[in-house]
What we know:
The chain is an all-beta fold. Helix content is about 0%, strand content about 65%.
Amino acid sequence: xxxxxxxxxxxxxxxxxxxxxxxxxxxxxxxxxxxxxxxxxxxxxxxxxxxxxxxxxxxxxxxxxxxxxxxxxxxxxxxxxxxxxxxxxxxxxxxxxxxxxxxxxxxxxxxxxxxxxxxxxxxxxxxxxxxxxxxxxxxxxxxxxxxxxxxxxxxxxxxxxxxxxxxxxxxxxxxxxxxx
Length: 180
């Protein structure tokens, strides 16, 4: 078994995603639905470790994330968010367990977001699946914190913990969201 580490991202690369909300809630009980499409690319190398060796892996990769998001307020303090979609990977250094350079990785997640009274930050608990529904299946639990800077910009950070043999054991996540 070879373990990969580093900031280059194994399957989750740095990128930009455009999201369009096509169903906006009219009341707090209504669902919000959005579609998203993006582009991501590897920015750095990875470290590869195995029995008796450690080496630099000049990781290459590009991906196109696509999917659907839904959210709804469950109470005045708790919001449910779900996402389903995936990433079309290409030029990926054969990182897929079956050795493919081009493949689709399914992604699904469900999260609960707590809305505190002062709203300076929102704690989140997210469960994430990433896999091909076959030879690679990763499950993670990710506690996160969303910090809104203003109505058009927010920062999100979290620490993911792997729950299965596939995927990362631990990961740090950061995200910046701009609304226009």
